[in-house]
Amino acid sequence: xxxxxxxxxxILGGLGGFTAGLLGVGGGLLLFPLLLYVPPxxxxxxxxxxxxxxxxxxxxxxxxxxGGTAHWRSGHVHGRLTLVAGAAAMAGxxxxxxxxxxxxxxxxxLLFGVVTLLAAAMMFLPGPSLEQEQIPVQRVVLxxxxxxxxxxxxxxxxxFLGAGNFVFVPLLIYVLKVPTRIAIGSNLAIAVLxxxxxxxxxxxxxxxxxxxxxxxVIGAAFGALGGEWCHRRVSPRAxxxxxxxxxxxxxxxxxxxILG
Length: 260
What we know:
Layout: H1 3-23, H2 28-41, H3 49-73, H4 79-99, H5 105-122, H6 130-133, H7 144-161, H8 168-175, H9 180-204, H10 210-231, H11 236-259
Helix pairs in contact: 1-2, 1-3, 1-10, 2-3, 3-7, 3-9, 3-10, 4-7, 4-9, 5-11, 7-9, 8-9
């Protein structure tokens, strides 16, 4: 790996980590397409989808661990939600991480396109009211059985792609009406659990490129702290708008690749 590629990966990792701290999406939503498209644009090595997925799941684990800890200290993590969803997602993530060794690159791209499209579609639903946004974390009540089932399916996607936890954010905000800051903070904590088993699955099957991963993770660590600092200074509505814009742009770009 050249120094130019290492520097590029570190910068891209920082962008992914920043979105993790700011929006609670683990960074995979942004980092997956960045790693696919940016290095070739700069005349550097082309990374295939399997390599990208392996690097992303590593970056997401470390950036969510750092960002999730910061959000927990700020009181934005729902404990029961995190445990139920995280445990179910871990089981699915390990399965997806192992099975991903035998799927094609085209399947991974298609899966990412479908997942981003679903996340973008949920954002057309009305968000939480101002009254709902002010509910403290101790009073947030959720249907745990449907949440666990959905989390297991999402975990499988995370294991395949290294990304997928970003679906939790629109689900919690737009479907379950969880306050935006609590949804973002809790999603980061869930992502720590789900990506840990997905990372383990890829590690045990020899899919992790260590030097590339190290470069990305170093950048992600600094980015996650900066993103959480900005999160505390941005309104919930602005956070939802930024998330929607990011998901929309990435969805369009991925589907241009798939259909092209």
